[in-house]
Amino acid sequence: MEIRCNAKLNLSFDIVGVRADGYHLVDTVMQSVDLCDFMTITPTDGSEIEIRSDNTSLPVGEGNLVYRAAKLLSDIYKVKNSGVSVYIKKRIPLRAGLGGGSANAAGALLALNKLWNLDIGDDELACLGLELGADVPFCLRGGTFRAKGIGEELISLPPFPECFFVIAMPGAGVSTECAYRQIDEKRDYARPDTERLISAICEGNTVAAAVRFCNVFETSGTSAASSEIIEKMRLLGAAGASMTGSGAAVFGLFMNEDDAANCCEKLKSDSLAYTAKPSMSGIITDSCQ
Question: What is the pTM of this model?
């Protein structure tokens, strides 16, 4: 099975509390985009889970969420002949806040559910996904959602209006654990007006939505390199720009494709940069044999 695993953007990101177990409670608006990883999953004899990738920095053992997704399904549903060979062609940068690992895990869950004829329902699959990561349930569905709790409480929103995103990644990624630790030490930072952002999305007002992009990880100053790129995007005509997730990737919204392409080209001199469009899907199956 060949699968496209779409990245996600956090159009807004707020931290609203901390659970007793230390998990942070969030309020975020999430959007799938067509920047994606390509993954091929092939059944093999035996029970070995083999992960390969064109990115040598990607873990290929138990540290990989695809490996853990396959192991989880195999163990719970007692799958016989559960061997699989997985090849991941990475386009989504690592440690970027773009949800690449979660998207890969979601793709593995969907693919193996079909390949192994497990007939797991959507709700149960989302619960299994949550065991792998807070963003996995969103990646299974894709589109435009408000997410609360630790990210598992999903509220469907109207599709985001047609536009063009430029996504840029500074040279170094950000550890999610370190980013949360840093923000716990901060007290003074701007927070998003999530309700007004959602109102703009519901009205189909792209520019009004863009000016309300806001992420507490960015406004608290946890990534200076990301803030510099955001300012460049605005100078190059972005209607709005912000950081996604806990960083370090940032994105800007453009109404015109040529303006987006121009911004992307100018950012490539000192960062990874991509253009993307909103998507209503998190995982796309290209073929199944």
Answer: 0.95
